[in-house]
Design a protein that fits this description.
With about 280 residues, the protein is mainly beta. About 5% of the residues lie in helices and about 25% in strands. A 7-stranded antiparallel sheet has the order 9-16-10-13-14-15-17, with no helix packed on it. The chain has a 4-stranded antiparallel sheet with strand order 7-6-5-8, with no helix packed on it.
């Protein structure tokens, strides 16, 4: 994969880039592994907007991804690498020896005709294979990691992400997350060996506002550009700062940017080192 640049035929094209699709081997999704996806437009069950700047966008069909992979000790063959409009990572269509097909998150370097397997004990250490953390060697890069045994992968599912297995001691495995956080996870939790595919997705330049609208994201207006009635940062003549406030706030008057929002959870005791604060 690589980043594809366009000829500057228009001002927007000059800044636009996309991830090359040369690695894709199949265009249309597997019909039996798809379902319709209703648009929420950032609204809850009452019709109230809970997430702003959502709406519109191109129609998408959801691909059913198998995050658990609980068909143990049955080899599966990768028969296609596909594009998924619902995530940045590529997905792989695999076919088990029993004839059943399913979608999984494709690992970086995974190709058609590769063989992958999932097991509840130690199996071959190979990219794309899945097994419990207690059987994976230390220092390995893993992705699609479970938080609770048998509940399916929850962590490191985004394009290009991976977790480093530092060690296994007692009942827990120590993992280093992409954010820098170090945490403990039950060693019975399963993970896939390797790194999530399509790491170049973070380098893509959207290029123009219309492309963002196709993604279902509407324009975001700065609080400073609003009136005082609409936002705590609003008002003032010309370009004004946010006033005498101690720090930036959101539209509802609550503190924003750099404020910890994590509530007390039972898993707090499993976090050894907090993630690094982004500036």
């Amino acid at each position: 994969m690589s980043i594809k640049l366009y000829k500057p035929t228009t001002p927007a094209r000059r800044k636009t880039s996309v991830v090359s699709s040369s690695d894709l081997t199949k265009k249309k999704p597997e019909k039996g592994l798809t379902e319709s996806l209703n648009k929420k437009s950032g609204r809850n069950s009452q019709g109230k907007i809970t997430v702003r700047h959502r709406g519109g966008g191109a129609k998408k069909i959801y691909r059913k991804i198998d995050f658990k992979r609980q068909k143990y000790d049955i080899p599966a063959k990768v028969i296609a690498i596909e594009y998924d409009p619902n995530r940045n990572a590529r997905i792989a269509l695999i076919k088990y020896e029993t004839g059943e097909k399913s979608y999984i998150l494709a690992a970086l370097g995974m190709k058609v005709d590769d063989m992958v397997m999932s097991g509840n004990k130690r199996i071959e250490i190979k990219t794309g294979n899945r097994m419990p953390l207690e059987f994976i060697p230390q220092g390995q890069m893993i992705y699609n990691v479970e938080l609770e045994p048998g509940k399916g992968g929850k962590m490191a599912r985004g394009a290009g992400t991976s977790v480093i297995l530092q060690n296994v001691e007692g009942k827990f495995a120590q993992l280093k997350m992409p954010s820098g956080e170090i945490r403990l996870v039950d060693k019975r939790c399963s993970a896939t060996l390797g790194q999530v595919s399509n790491p170049e997705s973070k380098l893509v330049r959207i290029g123009k506002a219309g492309r963002k609208r196709h993604m279902g994201i509407k324009p975001t207006v700065r609080g400073k550009a609003m009136n005082p009635v609409d936002h705590p940062h609003g008002g003032g003549e010309g370009g004004q700062p946010i006033g005498l406030k101690k720090g930036p706030k959101n539209i509802y008057g609550k503190k924003a940017f750099g404020i910890k929002t994590r509530k007390k959870k039972w898993s707090d005791k499993l976090i050894i080192k907090r993630r690094k604060k982004r500036r």
